[in-house]
TrEMBL record:
Organismal lineage: Bacteria, Pseudomonadati, Pseudomonadota, Gammaproteobacteria, Oceanospirillales
Keyword terms of this UniProt record: ATP-binding, Cell membrane, Ion transport, Iron, Iron transport, Membrane, Nucleotide-binding, Transport
InterPro entries: AAA+_ATPase, ABC_transporter-like_ATP-bd, ABC_transporter-like_CS, P-loop_NTPase, Siderophore_ABC-ATPase
Record membrane topology: Peripheral membrane protein
Location of this chain's protein in the cell: Cell membrane
The organism of origin for this protein: Marinomonas colpomeniae
A GO MF label: ATP binding
Ranges in coiled-coil conformation: none
Protein name: ABC transporter ATP-binding protein
ABC transporter domain boundaries: 10-245
PANTHER family according to UniProt: IRON(3+)-HYDROXAMATE IMPORT ATP-BINDING PROTEIN FHUC
């Protein structure tokens, strides 16, 4: 159950973002493919998380515009943006003394008002999120008693419960073991197949190639290239991004690129 409230587009037009006086993103143009999973990849410090924060209007641009359905995202009321776009940041702070289900309930806040109280649809959204993130057995557990991976799944479930057409995820599998990484990536694909447009920062290049429909490769605050993983991922691109030599072979099951014979050749 993913409540889609119509197609919602998100793009950056000549976007420039700074931290202090340091320019991180400069004159960047990007449109997220509708109903697809976009993976943003590149070396540490290249601006991936900054870009995601800019797209979600947390980071205000010094130049250019982020467009939500063709309109400057900063001109929307905050609650309206929250009904269209959910962001899971890289660093989350769990409130004290609440359990998993209570955290997920926060995802319904954009749908509440003084005139619109808790409804059956809100509980259905929470139940769906609990099931999707495999948290039914943990819904009554306090967050501070969970492992790092379990807490990460709870935060992802909160984003799912927000029921937005757009979902931005900053390293959604960073705290997870291999099994739960695969579960999360498969969940992300399932959500996109149900209509969500998803952008995620991913460090694991083979996983990005396997689970994303669209790759945005970044370096030094700029987009080096973008497109279908099978078309754009080459050993020349891997060398340019990460300073490693490798060979690429297709995954026998999916055809997505796999890196082999990896060798570090220079420092970035």
């Amino acid at each position: 159950m993913v409540d889609q409230t119509g197609t919602v587009s998100l793009s950056a037009d000549n976007l420039t973002l700074q931290h202090g006086k340091t320019t991180i993103i400069e004159s960047l143009n990007l449109t997220l493919p509708l109903g697809k999973v976009t993976a943003i990849v590149g070396p540490n410090g290249c601006g991936k998380s900054t870009l995601l924060n800019g797209l979600s209007r947390i980071h205000h641009p010094i130049g250019g515009t982020v467009l939500l359905n063709g309109k400057d995202i900063h001109k929307y009321p905050s609650k309206e943006v929250a009904r269209k776009l959910a962001l899971l940041p890289q660093d989350t702070i769990s409130p004290d003394g609440i359990n998993v289900e209570e955290l997920i309930r926060f995802g319904r806040h954009p749908h509440q008002s003084t005139m619109k109280q808790w409804k059956m649809s809100d509980q259905e959204a929470i139940d769906y999120a609990l099931n999707a993130a495999d948290l039914n057995g943990l819904k009554d557990r306090l967050l501070n008693t969970l492992s790092g991976g379990q807490r990460q799944r709870a935060w992802i479930a909160m984003s799912i419960a927000q029921e937005t057409p757009l979902l931005l995820l900053d390293e959604p599998t960073s705290a997870l073991d291999l099994g739960h990484q695969i579960e999360v990536f498969e969940l992300i694909k399932e959500l996109s197949e149900e209509g969500k447009t998803i952008a995620m920062v991913v460090h694991d290049l083979p996983s990005a190639c396997r689970y994303a429909d669209h790759i945005v490769a970044m370096k030094d605050g700029k987009i080096v290239t973008q497109g279908c993983p099978k078309k754009i991922m080459t050993k020349e691109l891997v060398l340019a991004l990460y300073g490693i030599e490798c060979d690429l072979i297709p995954d026998p099951m999916t055809g997505s690129p796999i890196l082999i014979n990896i060798k570090r050749v220079k420092s970035l």
